[in-house]
Write a structure and sequence with these properties.
two-stranded antiparallel sheet, 11 strands, alpha+beta, 10 helices
């Protein structure tokens, strides 16, 4: 029987909404860095650099979907590998329809109608358009923070992740650089999960042993690294390294800050589900479940 790749979404627990990072213009440092790296390039190349920065902020560790077409623009290739670059994209000129289509995937997968944009005339125009599209998408995503604490010290955070369902690529996003001292304040830890564009408002807090049993308890479970923020290469994870991937200490994750993980095989057994549900704390209300368990159809 063919196995289906999926992320297990904690059954009857809801996915949280996102808090849009709102301290100044959205992701201004990331966009400025993208423009700086593209300095001296043509405007279409600046546009792909800016668009890539926006997608990396909204969908970190975004999996590649196909082989890229032949472009001498590395950001165009990155976008094309992920199915984001419009057909007919040209590297020698930029028109409003192509630009609108490129920014559209920051919006339409999350239930929005894409906003139209004129062709940018300057790098600042491109950044402003990308920020506007990114802000719209970031308001719609629904990450649920996952905070696992050490079994021998409930104030020490072992690993953090975002359960990422409201996306064209549902996956578990494991993050490296988040707070590691719980200090009785899981909301502060959850606020450090995410990107310059979003962080989870809602979270699950549980003992690492329970969380690991939920995801890895079945002997037939296969873990797959779908992508990292450094690479779009899919990698099967040996069972001996699965725990280390969650802790970001596996060889496949040591250079990464974000790792996208999926699982293949049978889902958690009833015992794992019950064990997790009875051992976690959460700040999400049960009445929000129908909305937060939804998966986009686009």
């Amino acid at each position: 029987m063919k196995r289906t790749l999926r992320v297990w979404l904690l059954g009857v627990i809801a996915l949280g909404a996102a808090s849009v990072q709102a301290q100044g213009p959205l992701c201004s440092q990331e966009f400025a860095a993208a423009v700086t790296r593209a300095e001296g390039d043509s405007l279409p190349r600046v546009a792909t650099a800016v668009a890539r920065a926006a997608y990396e902020a909204l969908e970190p560790a975004m999996p590649a979907r196909r082989a890229a077409r032949e472009f001498d623009d590395r950001n165009a290739r990155w976008l094309d590998e992920r199915g984001l670059l419009p057909d007919g994209w040209r590297t020698d000129r930029l028109d409003g329809d192509a630009w609108t289509a490129l920014l559209g995937r920051l919006q339409t997968p999350y239930g929005l109608n894409a906003r139209s944009f004129d062709a940018p005339e300057t790098p600042d125009d491109a950044v402003g358009d990308a920020q506007a599209a990114l802000a719209r998408g970031a308001r719609e995503v629904r990450p649920l923070g996952l905070i696992a604490t050490a079994s021998d010290n409930p104030d020490r955070v072992s690993f953090t992740a975002a359960i990422w369902n409201w996306s064209p690529h549902p996956r578990l996003l494991v993050f490296r650089d988040t707070l590691r001292d719980l200090a009785g304040d899981p909301a502060s830890v959850a606020a450090t999960i995410g990107t310059c564009a979003w962080s989870p408002q809602h979270y699950l807090l549980g003992d690492e042993a329970s969380v690991r049993r939920y995801y890895l308890g079945n002997v037939d479970t296969e873990m797959i690294i779908l992508a990292t923020d450094r690479s779009g290469r899919v990698q099967a994870v040996p069972r001996s390294e699965q725990v280390n991937v969650l802790a970001m200490t596996a060889p496949q994750t040591r250079s990464a800050d974000v790792v996208a993980v999926g699982f293949a095989g049978p889902g958690p057994a009833v015992g794992e589900v019950v064990g997790l549900l009875t051992s976690v704390r959460t700040n999400i209300g049960l009445l929000d479940i129908p909305r937060y368990l939804a998966i986009p159809t686009q």
